[in-house]
Amino acid sequence: MSDWPWQLTILLSKLLVYGSFVSLTGALFVLCLGAGPCATKAPGSPPHILWSVLARQRISMVLLLGSSIGFLAMLLFFLLQVGLVNQNGVRGMLDPFMIKLLAQTPIGTGAFLRMAGFALVGAAVLRYWRHLRQDANPPLPGTVLGAGIVGVLLCCTGFAALGHVADLDEFAQLLVAVHVLVAGMWIGALYPLYTLCRTERASDIYPLMRGFGNWGWGITLSLVAAGVYLLSRLLMSPAELFTSTYGQLLSAKIVLLLCLLALAALNKFRLVPALQASGAAVLGRSIRGEMVLGGLILVLTAVLSTVTGPAHLMG
Q1: What pTM value is reported for the model?
Q2: pLDDT for 256-295, tens place per residue?
Q3: Rounded distance, CA 288 to CA 87, Å?
Q4: DSSP classification of residue 270
Q5: Which residues touch 228 (CB under 8 Å, ≥6 apart)?
Q6: Shortest CA distance to 154 belongs to which of 125, 177, 172?
């Protein structure tokens, strides 16, 4: 029986997992950046979310959908792995013996860590669902932040435990977790930032955009440094970036990342400083372009970790 239907379905489940992870990571990051003191509250009170109801509804929906879809997609991914090993059709996905067997492997460990992370974030968001969506200037719940941070870190640990990177040493796996985290903070923040450009006044979102740009330096440095080190561990020589299928896909991903960096630099040095004078529409269009590039990077990442890998280093 051909494996390609399994591989295609696994690829799609990975795309859902990646998209869900970056979405909730970025939304949590933007919530933290955008929360500030509320004029109607006493000094020293917790930070409050000062955006419009529409913006909060959309961003809280991102958190809820990201955690829910991520959990279900991760469960599907694990069951698909069971089915791929069992080679007995859909019925083989539900084989109790194979489920128990695979649960004791790195695939099971990574899947359950990510599922736990998604579930933790989803439970915290559900608890404060009404407040996040409807209250006027609601406080930023410490429970949501705490559960969100722990949940995201669990997911990052799960990413480091799966795939060809699972065979690397502990330091390399730590860098995988860092790479995934900062990528999620950057790419996942784009939709919430785009939403705020469409729903809020330019003067209200200017401090947030400036803060995101300042964080961007650390995010970019961490992303590139971790990526370069991991490339040095996964490839035998730089020439493989051009002579192997895996390397060529990595090269395409690097080109997309460079384009994303160029747009981010345009935003930081030209569009954000001019935000209050020119309005948020131009910045919103640039962020939309970043979203497209970020989506393509996620697709390539899913392909790299599913269809090919370092073991396929052949022309």
Answers
A1: 0.91
A2: 999 999 999 999 999 999 888 878 999 999 999 999 999 9
A3: 42
A4: I
A5: none
A6: 177
Token code pair at residue 279? 């309005």
Residue (of 177, 219, 188) closest to 19 by Cα position: 188
Identify the CA nearest to 155 among candidates 36, 13, 294, 22: 22
- Interatomic CA distance for residues 204 and 179, integer angstroms: 31
Using DSSP, state whether 42 is helix, strand or coil.
Answer: coil
Q: And the tokens for 167?
A: 């065979």
d(CA 211, CA 89): 51
The DSSP-derived string for 272-298 is TTTHHHH-SHHHHHHHHHHHHHHHHHH
Q: Which two tokens stand for residue 133?
A: 């969506």
What confidence category does residue 111 fall into, taking pLDDT thresholds of 50, 70 and 90? Answer: very high
Non-local CB neighbours of 140 within 8 Å, separated by 6+ positions: 31, 32, 35, 46, 47, 48, 49
